[in-house]
Design goal:
Number of strands: 11
Structural class: alpha/beta
Bound molecules: fe (ii) ion
Oligomer: single chain
Distance between the termini: 11 Å
Strand order of the largest sheet: 5-6-7-8-10-9
Number of domains: 1
C-alpha cells in the first residue's frame, strides 16, 4: 500500500483530463490518493474525475479548493456554500471520501479551509484580479474570514490518544503558512499572499500532531520540513506551468 498526493488537477484543460483518463487502471489498486482540491468548477466533470480516480485507487480522499466552489455556471440564487454541499455529495456518490481514513499505520485527516487574510490584507490589485471575488458568491454579510471560520469549525480538533501513536498525515487545499512560498517567487507576486491560506489550518494540523501535511493552491511544488512537519505540494497545474508543477503522482514516503 502506498500513499500518493496530487492537487490542482484543473481538468477543464483537456490535456489534464486525458492524463486522468490514461492513468493505469491496475497499478494503484492497493493505494490511497490524496486529492487536495481544485479539480474543476464543472460538477459533471468533477463527478467524472472522482469516479475515474475512485475506480483506480483503493481509496480517494478529497477536499474542495476554491475553483470547485465557483458558481459562474450555476443559477443566480445558488451560493458557494450550497455548491460546497453539492460538491461533497458528488464526491461521496463518486466513491471519494472527505473523512479521516486509516491506512496501515497512518491516519489521514482531511482539513477544510479557505483564506482569512491572516497572511496579509488584500490590496486593490488583488481585489480586481482575483477571480474568486467574482466567481464565488457568499450569503450576505459573509466574507472570506467568516467562510474560513465556517470550514475550520467542521474539522476534527483533536485525535484520541490511540491515534496519536500512529503517523498522522493531514491535507488541505489552502496553505497553512506563508513561508511555504519559496523565496524565488518575485516580490511582484506577493500581492497574492492574502488569498493563499490561513494560519488557522496550521494551528489545527499542529493540534492534531501531524507528521506530514499535503497542500495545494499555490501550484509551486515543494517538499520541506519545518518544525518537525513535512509539507508537500504536488500540483498538477495548468498546461503552461510545467516549470513549477509536476504532471505525475508523488508518493508520500
Ligand atoms: Fe486553489
Amino acid at each position: 500500500m502506498k500513499l500518493f498526493a496530487l492537487s490542482d488537477i484543473h481538468i477543464d484543460y483537456p490535456d489534464n483530463a486525458r492524463w486522468v483518463d490514461k492513468l493505469s487502471d491496475t497499478d494503484y489498486r492497493d493505494d490511497v490518493l490524496i486529492l487536495a482540491g481544485d479539480i474543476t468548477e464543472d460538477t459533471r466533470l468533477l463527478g467524472w474525475c472522482l469516479e475515474r480516480f475512485a475506480a483506480k485507487f483503493r481509496q480517494v480522499l478529497f477536499v474542495p479548493g476554491n475553483h470547485d466552489l465557483w458558481v459562474r455556471r450555476e443559477a443566480g440564487d445558488t451560493c458557494s456554500l450550497r455548491k460546497f454541499e453539492q460538491v461533497m455529495a458528488i464526491a461521496e456518490d463518486s466513491g471519494a471520501s472527505s473523512r479521516p481514513y486509516s491506512h496501515g499505520d497512518t491516519l489521514i485527516v482531511p482539513l477544510l479551509g479557505w483564506y482569512d487574510y491572516s497572511f496579509g490584507q488584500p490590496n486593490n490589485d488583488l481585489r480586481m484580479l482575483w477571480m474568486d471575488f467574482r466567481a464565488c458568491r457568499w450569503p450576505d454579510g459573509i466574507g472570506p474570514e467568516q467562510v474560513t471560520e465556517h470550514f475550520l469549525r467542521m474539522n476534527p480538533k483533536s485525535l484520541p490518544a490511540a491515534a496519536r501513536q500512529r503517523r498522522v498525515v493531514t491535507f488541505s487545499h489552502f496553505l497553512p503558512r506563508l513561508d511555504l512560498i519559496p523565496r524565488f517567487v518575485p516580490a511582484s507576486m506577493h500581492f497574492l499572499s492574502p488569498v493563499l491560506g490561513s494560519s488557522g489550518i496550521e494551528r489545527q494540523l499542529r493540534a492534531l500532531g501531524a507528521d506530514t501535511h499535503v497542500y495545494g493552491h499555490s501550484h509551486i511544488n515543494r517538499r520541506i520540513t519545518i518544525d518537525g512537519v513535512t509539507y508537500i505540494n504536488n500540483a498538477f497545474g495548468y498546461p503552461q506551468e510545467s516549470m513549477i508543477s509536476a504532471r505525475r503522482l508523488v508518493e508520500i514516503g
